[in-house]
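Reopening this one. Same input as before:
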Amino acid sequence: MKTLSKDYTINVCIILLIFVHAKHVHSGSDDVNTDISPVTRARCLARCLDQFGTVRSTNDDEYPTKNCKDTSCRQCTGPCDLDPFTFDKCGTDLCGGNQYCLSSCSFLKDLHAEALSKHDATQVNHSTILKAPEILCKNVPYGENKCPDLIATVYLRINSYPVNTKLSSVFVISARYINEMNDVTNWTAIKTTAETIVEIPKLRCSTDYQFMVTTVLSDNVYGQSKSTAWSRTPGYNYKPAAPISLSVSEPFLVNQKPSITVTWDPGPEAPCYYKIFWFDQTVLQDEIKVSK
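Same output, byte for byte:
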């Protein structure tokens, strides 16, 4: 369910209408470097978050993710994108005398040697049942679209985070799709993130996609990778569907200000963006008294 709280003016009757609109947002690049193992990159990032990450303030039902706010954490993650074939430069050439950066170089070299000897990641022995990720919404710019141009956006919710561990989680997101020859492409890592709600932009419109999430800790892969069901991105002349239902709550106080909550059911093919309009009636209908 979607919810929204909005202050409203006392002594005014409010009529609410909700419309859907489409919007395309380009986010900063967080793409996986294809020259480095995505799991190696994720383990490097997870290690830095373990040591220097700051826990985000979240709702009670959300996984407490971390981010790099201080200088030490950013210096630690600097080498995490390094090409394994240039590991000889991961040292004083890259870091100077910075110990946070140098420690990541040492960690990466150990991981690279481990990967060469094992040829595969070994799962951490944690007992858990990971849930599959889910697609929250899909979107393309409103109007006529030339498919399969890279204009579609999907928002993904990651549900496969660990329990009973204090180690930070990093998620490697991979994708595959059905091309024009009706062949299924190989899995390709497209994003590495510590977030649990992830925007995946620049997808082919009018194309069937599947997404897979691999959960990684600093000491290795956590559990089995989990995939979404196949889902088709919006296509030519896409028109977002209106919500199935809409409701408005009784007035309540937020920081001593009268407020209401608008809740709607977006339906099975939810778009990612909404506009909400409300119209004030100029004739006084009733007086609402708010207790102090």
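So the earlier flakiness isn't reproducible anymore. For the record, The chain has a mean pLDDT of 77.
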